[in-house]
């Protein structure tokens, strides 16, 4: 079933695909092409680290015994009616019976719980335990006992930790330290019973695995089972003192039954772990769909108060997800519809979308929305249109969207039309919006769509627009099909189909950037490290030396400390020249009048030197000298920079430079490591991208040189790490094609 009760990601990728550790060629599961998932045990990949010592592969925790334990201990078990722990104990006993686990109640105040022997302490357990469920207000004292008993996993429901503020965060830190010493893995605290829900076992096909930090937010996805969509796991991560979203993401990406991962994320515990987990999912071609709250300042504050974790700058989170193929959606209805489609739909045979309806207005409306969202609606060829006009009146439009006028769907012609559209090699997706039930037509159309879907390897989608949703054509025919994707709104259908096409385009060309990440420091890094000044902002002259160390081109220039030296420097650099004051405290020289341009004579150079130094003395700004620079007059001004993100570490920004960076803020963010393809994709996201292609007679800019500069800056960010708090190259002038790019100004800050 691809139905729902509710009705991007493009990159330029190399054609080669890197095979992940343990990965095997694709094979077929449930009649659908599914990639093999690499093993779920610890140590599946060798230890491999980048230049900063950070891992380059995601460890895959062996969570089999968490989700399918052989033995379970319930610490604080109760059977006293009216007590909260009693209901939880009862639910856990039912769950243990379903998964075939032996359950052992533990409570020093009881000898029996629900007729089962109850043990006074963990030490009294009759056998080793895979999972301990802690129904105690303070789990910290129990952790040491669990470690001595060699328990593998524990779940802590208790609240009052990082979600409550500073004191709670300190308590959670103590809990995390105790868990780290113990050797067990902990889910929580501040989690719930979602992992122990009753999953339907009568459903087949690829499943959705669900990760949520707030349990209630996963309910819409979990309810998909009522429509025939299989769910395999639910991980309610809570405050993530130990086990986190990334752990479950890595694990689910290796499970052969998982067709898609759906996640509700309030805050990420560690950015690097998330990137590595998303990389593993991309390598294994497992789609990940996520709602990440915190797009606004208010949302970020609310998320932090709920989970006690850093939210991170949203544009950085967005960039990280996009780079590694995580499909970010805004609503829970989009999450369930998109995840359901991606879990079950076969790989597209083509990217073209055909819109077919019994109403010209409906088809036109849907087509406008689909095209605006980036879906491609190819015009059907003359031969195909002539074929369709065998069954559709000549006066109706059939070029795409296809309008049948209504009557043909009521007889044998309806199926002929569907088969003809699906036979077109340019069409990979057929979408039929049915705005309302009209049984003489809609019932027959729904059945024809289901029958046609069974006979094709292409995706067939239906939007059932009735607000009622109780009609047989919807409830039985469409939702009863495992091959038709049924939606309730135009928007959700378009979002899901776009994600479906984008995902397969992405993973088919995916090459992990971690495979090419630098493992050893380059000679450039050693030169650059000698230039760093801890706790200081470098002068422009020193910052440009840093750029030179990494092979980034700067203008011909000399640093001088006298008017006579300035004149000599100008003759060597070549007129016209630019003169700028250079000092470690200068960030905005233009505003202070400390930049002079278009100087064409020795007298102008002398006067400029005296004026610049006078202004610096008046403003009490220390200088290391005055720069006499080559004048670069022609090119596109860009900005390239490095900042440190609290979650992901160094990030690289590129965008329109000069004054435009402050006026338009047309910039995009990249999270290292990334390759040339992603650097080019970043440029394609800029609203002002056309400037690089040349406008109003201007020649095309040297795009290759710009990309190379971005990659060199990324290398600098990776190798210098925390030693470089900030780098700002503005402007970087990109010259006409073949002439390179030149950094006219630079600012660097050492922490």
From TrEMBL:
Gene3D superfamilies: ATP-grasp fold, A domain, ATP-grasp fold, B domain, NAD(P)-binding Rossmann-like Domain, Succinyl-CoA synthetase domains. The keyword ATP-binding applies. InterPro entries: ATP-grasp, ATP_grasp_subdomain_1, CoA-bd, Ligase_CoA_dom, NAD(P)-bd_dom_sf, Succ_CoA_lig_flav_dom, Succinyl-CoA_synth-like. Residues 544-582 form the ATP-grasp domain. Residues 23-62 are annotated as: Disordered. The keyword Lyase does not apply. Keywords: ATP-binding, Nucleotide-binding. It comes from the Bacteria. It comes from Streptomyces glebosus. One of its GO terms (molecular function) is acetate-CoA ligase (ADP-forming) activity. It holds the Pfam family Ligase_CoA_2. This is ATP-grasp domain-containing protein.
